[in-house]
Amino acid sequence: MATALILLQALSLVSSTILSRADRITRLPGQPRVGFQQYSGYVTIDDKKQRALFYYLAEAETKPISKPLVLWLNGGPGCSSLGVGAFSENGPFRPKGSVLVRNLHSWNQEANMLYLETPVGVGFSYATESSSYEGVNDKITAKDNLVFLQKWFLKFPQYLNRSLFITGESYAGHYVPQLAQLMIQYNKKHNLFNLKGIAIGNPVMEFATDFNSRGEYFWSHGLISDPTYKMFTSYCNYSRYVSEYYRGSVSSMCTKVMSQVSIETSRFVDKYDVTLDVCIPSVLSQSKVVNPQPQQVGETVDVCVEDETVNYLNRRDVQRALHARLVGTRKWAVCSNVLDYEVLDVEVPTINIVGSLVKAGVPVLVYSGDQDSVIPLTGSRTLVKRLAEELGLRTTVPYRVWFAGQQVGGWTQVYGNTLAFATVRGAAHEVPFSQPARALVLFKAFLGGRPLPGEF
User: Fold this and answer.
1) Are residues 299 and 438 both part of a single domain?
2) Same structural domain for residues 259 and 345?
3) For position 119, which CATH number holds?
4) Does the residue 55 lie in any domain?
5) pLDDT tens digits, residue range 57-105?
6) What is the pLDDT of residue 282?
7) pLDDT category of residue 295 using cuts at 50, 70 and 90
8) Whether residue 410 is found in the same domain as residue 335
9) Which of 247, 352, 410, 452 could bond to 424 as cystine, CB 3.0-4.6 Å?
10) What's the domain range around 222?
11) Quick count: other Cβ atoms within 10 Å of Cβ 125?
């Protein structure tokens, strides 16, 4: 019996090795030589309806066997973790013309980075029936992501007992806690996931608090006038506007207020990065829910002439190298054009789920790029402080600056041993894109369970 069991385990390992080898990337077009392995491909999460999620794995640059596994999820809902996270933020490469250049602050210096295009209908993820793109919501997405991980571990059993962290940004403030909650529940019976922590950047955690901090942010940064600030906070705050907008019944008052806000903030200021004079292409405008502004005639989403990432991922040779295919669409897009997501799920708070994770002993880091007006740091800081008070957590690291090299990287505060808040100085909504060096310092401290560096 024991011999049969050993033989079965050996056969399973051989089978999984064959599966993972089929997903190995020999070399991406235009890619510089590197010493780490890359994999990408599909995990079918529903055989009956042929629903499959696409992933990209960049193993750690050095000693991948001893490094943790980190799952990264972008938001939207409906935007790509491959195009935004991997190729624009914290992955090993960034497209530049016809080639790829190294990201000197890639997170795979510290971990094995797994990027998931979720839900089905996002990026290269697909379903053969278009009905699978309809009525998708947070509950469905969380379950699908759980099934993905279960099946992905069958391909990569060497990661089964590895420390696992879940990270993401924006609407991933819903995705990440909800997935972590399901993993904890699943572990009560099966003990599959070695979850060691979650980190969420500029996250949507509570609709009203997050969205309504925008008015104060605009005013304090000089983007709107005193009278408009009063209107924005007294007559039609942002949560009311979004609620009305997604119910198809924007009141005349909200129309008037938002029109004035739009005029004063100007369409020439990127709301995801209000101070840096840079060109942020549509690949980084990853939120459909948190910033729903109807386009003006003649205005385009792209403020740049060329979108490097979109061009790169739409190349046939690149898609072949990634083992990717387009199903039901002719073009890979940063944010899905086919997904019909239940946008009102944004009104359902996840801060309570974050609280349950902290109570379960899962370390949580909430971090904010301080130049983001879409999900401003003030809302996130308020929510984390309130959660700490509700859980009776004492401050263990008082509010202070943290350093990246010899410069202030931001500010931080830690509650108990499991809940931390940090800002990243000069960072936009997409922190690893706008402040890559500081983001890497933040990430390294998070993985190591250490406070952010103090004065040198």
Assistant:
1) no
2) no
3) 3.40.50.1820
4) yes
5) 999 999 999 999 999 999 999 999 999 999 999 999 999 989 999 999 9
6) 45
7) very low
8) yes
9) 410
10) 207-309
11) 28
3-state secondary structure of 422: strand
Q: What domain count does the chain have?
A: 2
Asked if residue 73 and residue 32 are part of one domain, the reply reads: yes
The reply to whether 133 and 44 lie within a common domain is: yes
280: tokens are 């942020």
170 is a catalytic site residue: yes
The amino acid occupying position 103 is N
Domain end point (choices 309, 324, 347): 309
Q: At what angle do helices 252-265 and 226-234 cross, to 10 degrees?
A: 140
Closest residue by Cα to residue 317 from 86, 33, 92, 26: 26
Residue 189 and residue 47 in one domain: yes
Question: Does residue 12 lie in a domain region?
Answer: no
- Taking the C-alpha atoms of residue 164 and residue 70, their distance in angstroms, rounded to an integer, is 6
- 253, 282, 309 — which closes off a domain? 309
Which is more confidently placed, 286 or 263?
Answer: 263
Asked if residue 318 is part of any domain, the answer here is yes
Structure tokens belonging to residue 16: 């999984």
Q: What span, in angstroms and rounded, lies between the C-alpha atoms of 416 and 396?
A: 6
Confidence bin at 296 (pLDDT 50/70/90): very low
Task: Give the integer Cα–Cα distance in Å for 65 and 342.
Answer: 39
Q: Which of 125, 174, 210, 429 is catalytic?
A: 429
Q: Strands (DSSP E) along 337-432, which ranges?
A: 340-341, 364-369, 395-404, 407-415, 419-424
Catalytic residue selected from 372, 373, 380, 434: 372
Residue tagged active-site, from 170, 282, 285, 373:
170
Task: Specify whether the CB–CB gap between 366 and 380 falls below 8 A.
Answer: yes
* Active-site annotation holds for 130: no
**Positive/negative CA dihedral, 213, 115, 68, 432:** negative
Indicate if 226 belongs to the active site. no
Average pLDDT score over residue span 113-121: 97
**180 contacts 173 by C-beta, under 8 angstroms:** no
CA distances to 35, 70, 145, 155, 246 from 44, rounded to whole Å, are 29, 21, 11, 12, 32
